[in-house]
Each structure stands twice: as structure tokens, then as C-alpha cells.
Amino acid sequence: MTHPNGTGLCLVTGASGYIGGRLVPELLAAGHRVRCLARSPGKLRDHPWADRVEVAKGDVTDEESVRAAMRGVDVAYYLVHALGSGRGFEETDRTAARIFGRRAREAGVRRIVYLGGLTPEGVPESELSPHLRSRAEVGRILLDSGVPTTVLRAAVVLGSGSASFEMLRYLTERLPVMITPSWVRTRIQPIAVRDVLRYLVGSAGMPPDVNRTFDIGGPDILTYRDLMRQYATVAGLPRRVILPVPVLTPNLSSHWVGLVTPVPPAIARPLAESLRYEVVCREHDIADHVPDPPGHPIGCDEALALALRRVREAQVTTRWSSASVPGAPSDPLPTDPDWAGGSLYTDRRDRRVDASAEALWRVIEGIGGENGWYSFPLAWAVRGWLDRLLGGVGLRRGRRDAHRLRVGDSLDFWRVEEIQRGRLLRLRAEMRLPGLAWLEMYAEEDGEGRSRYRQRALFHPRGLVGHAYWWSVSPFHAIVFGGMARNITRAAQNEERARPGSGRRTGAAA
């Protein structure tokens, strides 16, 4: 039995995602021990709490790894879902939930806690979007598992880095006049991420006779149009003109959102589908078990102000893009030169740098986002737009932090696959490609107070189209990759000359 102040072992799935990555430190602060189940444990190693948790390698669809992860667990948090971007995602969600519930029951887990989506009243489940329907089904499966379960159902989550907040922020800031889908007139009940976390942590202490869903939301009920205008007020923007039209379907809406915001259509679509329905809490029974302290639940104005301040102060701890993009390549880098996987094309660049390895590393680790990619900005921008048109993530995801990267971070249309601090940054491409691609950047001492910059781009083609793609773009490599190597080394040298050892960036992307 968990002590009211913690001490039980909590299993957290989805710890590399937006909510999971914020829940772990909250559980630790409440006195709980934490074990994280992760497909790629390396993604968690750079989190500030990494040395305070156990990490079990596995996946919720793998029965044996779930069984091992459940040993000795008191409370199990289920914070994963397949989003709905690929065929068969509902069956994947269904299978994973059944495995999770079955193994939790066999291990004697005291409680399961699941964060799902708020469903509209009076709408048959068969008429819901596949995304909402699957979230509801997962909740039912866990409630029927034989383990007392808390299902928290939330609508729009407002917090720095959340997909809902990023969509709201970019739409409002970039479009002073908007022709919008009709769902902007639908009533919603947003909730601040701080309150979501408070309910998740508090749910661990619920008594064993509680096995039910709870609607969770903030104190304000408003339309999405009202929310955009409220954001404009909080952000100090002029009043936005919003013109809803009925012709934008969820599919068209997702592409419209994808063009204007960093949120790709694969994620924007389930968000847009959810906003078609009125999602308002029908009860606030959660307060009987997790009482609201003064000032909570947090209102929309305060939630938006808190999130915006975090963004402006570059203190976003997790982002929606922390989780891997569905359908993105995840194969490890074939580091063996004689890799048995087939052809591997390589573009190598090597330059001596009249600067320390520390100065060079600061430039390398600061790449992407607002700092750019140090070569032919138009080419990068065009590649980003093409990726968005093909349904990819594009170039606008930016960075979680302007100066520091950690394994698992999204970086425009790349993901950080490996960091050896001060020496190596390896990025894996998540753009739409007929193959797998990586970009490596090294900073090395040369023993004479200077350094050497090494850069390697690798591409493993998929089929004939993949080979044709490499040879069609290879004439531009001297401009893109060659320019990148030249400009990165120049930026490091400029920084060293301007303020040796200060760590202050003076170089700029060319």
C-alpha cells in the first residue's frame, strides 16, 4: 500500500513523451520510487532525473517486457497511444492495453492510472473520430482488467510545449486574419498541464474501491475562437479576426494546421477531429479524491501566461515532439563499414579549425532552430516545405532548448540519436525519404590548441527509388554539406576570437 506521502514503486510508460517526461519528476518529488518502461532507454539518459529512476527496456506490445517491468510495482501509469497516424493503430492500442492490464493483475499492481480523452456527451462511440474512439476503448479495457483503475479524461491541455498549445500559439501569432474550420465555434474546457500532473500524482493514493473515469478540466468553458482571442490578449497581440467556414473537413483542417504551425498533419488530424465535438466536463468528482488547493484548477488566462512565459524564457522541459513521430525511421545507425544491411552512401567533410574544441562544440550543439543550419537557408526551407506537403514534420519543430540538446530531442526534421558531450552529435532524419538518413558532427582536439571538425552524412536507400534519390541530390551536396562544414568552422573561429572561453555565440548561419 502506498503511503500518502509516497514511497511506492510507480511504473511510468511514455516517459519520453510530453506528459510522461513531466510526470516522473513530480512523482519523485512526492516521494515515490519510479521505474520507466522505454523502447529506447538512451532517450531518457539526459533528463535531469535520469539517475534517480530505474529504466526497463521494453514496449507495451511486448508481453514479456511488460511482465518484467511490472515486478514489484504499486501503481502503473499508462501514458502511451498510437495516435492514429497509421493503419491498424486501433488494434495496436487494443492489444497493448490488454497486455498492460493482464500483466498488472498478475503482478499484484494496486492501481492503474490512465490519461485519456474527454468524449462528447450524447454522441455514440461509433460516430466518434478513430482517435477518440480508441482512447475510450483503452480506458474500458483497463477498467475491466481486474486492477482498480483511474481513467482521467482531458480535452485540450495547455502547457508550454504541448501540441495543443503550439497549435494555438502559431495559429494566433501568424494569422491576424483567419479563415478557419467551423470547429473554432465548438465549446471546450481546457486544462492546465500543472493540474493534469497534480491529478495524475494524486490518483496514486486512491482507495481500492475506486474503479472509474473522472472528467478533468479547468474552470473555463469557451470556444476555440475565444481561446485564440484570449491568447492574443495574453501575448499582447492585436485582436484577431476569425472567420469560420463549414467546408474545411478534418483532413483539410489537419493540412491547414500543418502549413501554418510546426504540428504535422499526422498529429494535427486527431487534434482537429477531437475539436469537432463539444468536450465539456460532466462532473468534478476527482476533487473528492484529489482536493483542489487554492488557485486550482488554473484558469485559461493564467495557464496561457505560464506557458508563454516558459517559452519566452526557454524553460520548456518537454514538448509534444519529445515522443517519436509515428512512421518515422527508428533503425539504429549502421556504424559497421561493412554493414550487412545493403548499400550505404556517405558524404564526408573534414576541416581544421583555428579554435578550441569547446568553442566548436558550442556551435555544433547550438545548430538548428533559430540558429539555422549554417548553409544555403533557402535549400533547407524548400526541403522543409516539401516534407510538409508530403505529410512529414517539416523544418519548423525547432528546438526544445536554444543551447543544450539531449538524446531523443526533436531538432527541426531531425531527432537527436546520440550525444557524446563535447565530441559527437548524431542526428537521425525524420523527414519523408525513400530510405534512412543520419548526420554526424564531431569536434576533436588536434593537440596544438586547435581542433578538427568532422562531418558525415549517411543514407541507406530503400529500393531503386532510394538510389535514384541519392544520385539526384548528390550534385547539391557540395553546396549544402560543404557550406555547412565551412560555416560551422567559421562560426567557431569567430566565437573564439570575439570572447575566448566565454561560450557566447557570435557566428550566424549563412
Automatic annotation (TrEMBL):
Q: Where does the NAD(P)-binding domain start and stop, copy by copy?
A: 14-155
| Positions of transmembrane segments | none
Q: What is this protein called?
A: SDR family oxidoreductase
Output the InterPro entries linked to this UniProt entry.
ComplexI_NDUFA9_subunit, DUF2867, NAD(P)-bd_dom, NAD(P)-bd_dom_sf
Q: Which CDD domains match?
A: SDR_a2
